[in-house]
Amino acid sequence: MDKQEFLQHYLVERHGTDSMKWDGLEDKFGEGEKDLLAMWVADMEFKTCDAVVEAMEKRSRHGVFGYSIVPDAYYSVFSQWMERRYHFPVKKEWLRFSTGCVTGISWMIHAFTNPGDACMILTPVYYPFHNVVTNSGRKLVKVDLCYRDGYFTMDIEAIEKAIVENQVKMFLLCSPHNPAGRVWTEEELDRVLAVCQKYNVLVVSDEIHQDIVFEGRKFVPAAVVCGGKYRDIVITLNSATKTFNLATLIHSHIIITNEKLMEGYDRFASALNRTEVSIMGMVATMAAYQHGEAWLGNVLEVIWDNYAYLKETLEKGLPGAKVCCMEGTYLPMVDLRACVEPEKTQDFVQKRCRLGVDYGEWFGEKYQGFVRFNLATAPAYVRQAVERMIAEGKRG
């Protein structure tokens, strides 16, 4: 279907549905802020594809939600998706399940590091990456990405220096990177993974945004870089939840190709991870991978059009604003430092423009003056947000 048909069919009103994004505004942004235009939280205003809903309805009519196995058909469908799109056929014995990618990160930290061990992240990065390390009693090592004119890159020398000085045991890779918007090239991944291999650093690669890629960019899973050269030091976490708007169905994948690592994880899981697979999450994911590709194509078109409008219109109408690159994810950063004093960013965006956004300092201390926008939403909301920012910018 074309864009307008898609929006008419799938765009949904979420107020009054216990949506964190819309009904939880006061909890996040303070009393009296329930009327903010919600541009935060990484989920969508789009209903998931019809095939997913139909599969879940069929399963629900069965009426039993007891303990369930994962059928061979699931492994086949998932492996075919990964092979077709990323040249990464996933074997059944490589796959385990968790209730979410951040939960998966936590499990990997506890399975493969000890209290006090150093875990490295590249900032600015999704704030649960910070919290899951510190809350696990590990040492958080932060290396800033290089930033220039709306574009982020890895500082390989700084990464190596941090690994050596802190005896880093684990690297939490965000790929594609949220909120930097980068889809790391195979060359970039080769360089950083080579450093990790050199110093025996285990890489946990959160690839939850793998399917949300633009501008002809090619997503390369860390486990297949250079023909799988680094596969033995990589644990991959991914899910259909971001791709198909299924977050609270609590179902995601842990992919471990190294047999010894898998044995280590299974020993850990036998004592702690006793969660059964979510039957509805499994049903929804399988249907999405089988029947959701056309739906995803429509979603990507809407997101990209929203980004193009945001970049062109905001940069023109609010001099000094810089909309950062969005090669992947639907969560670009906007650098407002040249038009709003960094310490006044929240006052400008929230109090004056009445927008609920994620602030740059949530992702890294040095990024005050940046905000993150969620563009997996109605084009009308993006227009309203941009119009408000331009209008308030003109008022000075």
What report would you give on this structure?
With 396 residues, the protein is of the alpha/beta class. It has two domains: 3-49 and 293-395, Aspartate Aminotransferase, domain 1; 53-291, Type I PLP-dependent aspartate aminotransferase-like (Major domain) (Aspartate Aminotransferase, domain 2, 3-Layer(aba) Sandwich), CATH 3.40.640. Helices cover 43% and strands 15% of the residues. It is built from 15 helices and 15 strands. The chain has helices at residues 3-10, 20-23, 25-29, 50-62, 72-86, 101-112, 127-134, 156-166, 186-198, 241-244, 259-271, 279-291, 293-317, 345-352, 379-395, and strands spanning 37-38, 95-98, 118-123, 139-144, 146-148, 151-153, 168-174, 202-206, 234-238, 252-256, 322-323, 333-335, 355-356, 358-359, 370-372. The chain has a seven-stranded mixed beta sheet, with helices on both faces. Helix 9 links the parallel strand 7 (168-174) and strand 8 (202-206). Helix 4 packs antiparallel against helix 12 (279-291), helix 5 crosses helix 12 and helix 8 (156-166) packs parallel to helix 9 (186-198). The protein is globular. The model has no long low-confidence stretch (mean pLDDT 97).
